[in-house]
Amino acid sequence: MQSVDEALSKLEKSSFRSGFRLNETDLEYINKKGMETVRSHACDFVKSKLSPANPVKDGKQTPTHGHPVFKAMHATACCCRGCLNKWYNVPKNIELTEIQQEKIVNLIMSWIERQMSQSGS
Q: Would you call 58 helix, strand, or coil by DSSP?
């Protein structure tokens, strides 16, 4: 099992995954709402978009913009069950456990925190 730091380091080597960045609008949203609210949104998105054994429109269920968590989900390869399987060996067609959901949210939030610190926010 890899750590969050190991996962983020591996993702940085992918030209696609490393291309995602929070823009000024995203940073303003996070600063206005606060990290706890953003974490709550991440929990909700993971539960609704990734947790089911067979998510609706799997592979296309997570937009690439519209919310900072969506960008983070793509940047961390937590955007669909296919990416979770490819990057983290999470089996498809099995509902995610609460522990798996929590680990995914922690990874997403760590990416967001790094983005915030790199931007000086």
A: coil
